[in-house]
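STRUCTURE REQUEST FORM
Protein name: Hippocampus abundant transcript-like protein 1
Source organism: Glycine soja
Requested output: structure tokens
Priority: standard
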Amino acid sequence: MDKLYGLSHLFMAVFLHNFSMFMVVPAITDVTMAALCPGQDECSLAIYITGFQQAMIGLGTLVMMPLLGNLSDKYGRKAILTVPMILTIIPVGILAYSRTKKFFYVYYVFKILISMICEGSVPCLGLAYVADNIPESGRSTAFGILSGIASAAFVCGTLSARFLSTALTFQVSTLIAVIGALYMQFFLRDSAIDDKHLYTPIISQENPIISKVNGKLESKKHLFKALRSIEDLTSFLNSSLTITQAAIVAFFNSLADVGLHGSLLYFLKAQFHFDKNQFADLMVISGIAGTVSQLILMPILAPILGEARLLSVGLFFHCIHMFLYSIAWSSLVPYASAMFSILFVFSHPCIRSIVSKQAGPHEQGKAQGCISGICSIAHIVSPLVFSPLTALFLSERAPFDFPGFSIMCIGFASMISLVQSMMLRVVPPILN
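Status: completed
Returned output:
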């Protein structure tokens, strides 16, 4: 418990960052539709450019996540975490200033470029920070708590969006993002393990002293080694059967998550005429259920069932959740489906905990970054497959009348991750 208390500043920094980012999610669909297709409830252009955005972000993060994770092993979690905490302020700041068509495209370009570097890096580095400070026996609980903090921020952010105007939503989001970056800079201490083993601080007033023998050449050697993102990714995935299986589960789970994120809101808007307020209500239900589950249920169930079984439980209800969305016959069905998050939110922290225990104490950034890189491949593939499918079945050109067909296909991707998780065998690293 004392170790978890020592992570309080990390939890607060992650909470503020996620609070800011999630606050704008319910509003961004309406802003996009208003900028591109004003007065319409169905807009193929909006679906396609959202899919393109996701694919480009996935392409960037495929390279950047292993790189940032590796750099954080060398230079410290806090130094690398500063980059996404600051850069992500820019896109929401643009829409805080104006949401006209011209400014929307400016936002769109900055969002892609910055997210190619930063998307997913805060939770990835946060997990590595937790792994630095928590022993293996308590990591699944600690990872669940970190995910619960993110879910709590999701609830607070979407509740705020529910009661704020669109303009004020982006302005408040920008302010909170600035506060989060400042809070982390002033209060968060670097991982204790990093203080002992860092090769050099990334920003220093003195010349780096790496070792008495090699001096600056050794510093450059480690930097170049950290830059071999793709090589690190492939070697890490091949280092263990458990890691390979976990990576497959993570890929198909992310494929489903990204597909649902890119398609669901447009489906609900076209099918049931949902707007920002209904989106926020739906997200609040899902967020509250997920927060309760991760903060209360997961610490109880993880030691009893084990991470592998709990992972399968979460993925099973993830499939049910998506299939229920796909056949929604009433506007009330999405609200019922959102309640399943109380059971399917286990999957993400369980995957991360399994992978964390397969890596050494000085490779946690690399491990989490490589898994995030695998998830980034799903960010590339998913929009290419599901965005055209969603646009087709929400248009008048649909081959048959089943608007939720793309959501059902996304559910099949989740089912593949479920099947793979049931074959997952978690063994100690020494046995691999």
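Reviewer notes: Residues 44-75 form the longest helix (32 residues). The chain is about 80% helix and 0% strand.
Form closed.
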